[in-house]
Amino acid sequence: MFRTIRSVASMSALVLVLVACGGDSTATTAPPTTVAPTASTTASAPTTTQPAPTTTTSSTSTTSTTLAGDAADGPTDGARLMVVAVPYDEGLNLRSAPGTDQQILDRIPPTYTDLVASGEARQLAGSRWYQVDYDGTIGWVNASYLAYQGTTAEIGSRIADEMGGTPSATGLLELAAMVAGHVAQEATSAELTVVFAPTDGREGEAMIDITGLEDDSIGGVRLHIVAQLEGGVWVLQSVQQTLLCSRGIGAEESCL
Questions:
Q1: In whole numbers, what is the pLDDT of the chain averaged over residues?
Q2: Residue 186 three-state SS
Q3: pLDDT at residue 127 tops 90
Q4: Which residues lie closer than 8 Å to 212 by C-beta, 6 or more apart?
Q5: 249 C-beta neighbours (distance < 10 Å), count
Q6: Cα dihedral sign for 184, 7, 113, 120?
Q7: Higher model confidence: residue 82 or residue 43?
Q8: pLDDT score for 103
């Protein structure tokens, strides 16, 4: 099942390829045709690897011995978490217990931002799981697909300055990938995931999560990209960047 865009560095172009989506997300609709765009700017993008697992810091929870794995550190009781790096045509599985072999209770949308942690966490071989409340249903999710929502800032003007002018492209997904590739160019192991599909009309928008930033505080960023169709070309209008915090949030929603 292929939904995630990975950016690969080259000397002269941003090359986008499709990679298998791992973890515990499940497609909820038939897979759409995905465009593999090429760059129309000189900005280069990083060579990427699989995304680093989201980490948190808080007190260790005590869970039932009937659950798989060991008690682990996780978010405190009542902490708010958001879903990250789940492709737009998939959902994050909410399971009855930790582990991919457990019953699926529900599927959480890729842009959901209000999961409530219970304070329970379990460490399995190769994955960590958090117990959360999703709209009244209690279940477990793979922690690699969760983060704390940090500050949001407008960075469109900065990107235009850095790229030598307002970026544009013949396709909205191509433009979004160009912008995300530019933002991620300093990271050596960043992965780009389209979490909100490009919309149609004269004004379009898309969301891309950039994860795997190799930072123990900021696990990634979410880019909300808005563009205007002008003469058959998509021209960037704005970019809202939201920090995806790994350990928690402090004053003014800054990452701890």
A1: 80
A2: coil
A3: yes
A4: 48, 49, 50, 51, 52, 187, 189, 190, 191, 220
A5: 18
A6: negative
A7: 82
A8: 97
* CB within 8 Å of 226: residues ≥ 6 apart: 203, 204, 205, 236, 237, 238, 239
Question: Could you count the other beta carbons within 10 Å of the beta carbon of residue 120?
Answer: 22
- Is the pLDDT assigned to residue 65 strictly greater than 80? no
Does 224 score more than 80 pLDDT?
yes
Collapsing DSSP to helix, strand or coil, 182 comes out as: helix
How, if at all, do strands 233-245 and 146-154 pair?
antiparallel
The residue-averaged pLDDT of 218-235 equals 95
Burial of 33 from C-beta contacts in 10 A (0-12 / 13-18 / 19+): exposed
Mean pLDDT of 231-245: 96
Residues in Cβ contact with 130 at an 8 Å cutoff, skipping those fewer than 6 apart: 74, 75, 81, 117, 118, 120, 121, 140, 141, 143, 146
CA 171/CA 28 separation, integer angstroms: 25
Q: Tell me the CA end-to-end span of the chain in Å, nearest whole number.
A: 34
Of 203, 185, 105, 112, nearest to 149 by C-alpha is 112
Which residue would you say has higher pLDDT here, 240 or 12?
Answer: 240
Model confidence at 52: pLDDT above 70: no
- Cβ neighbours of 12 (radius 10 Å): 9
Q: Which of 33, 141, 15 is nearest to 89 (CA)?
A: 33
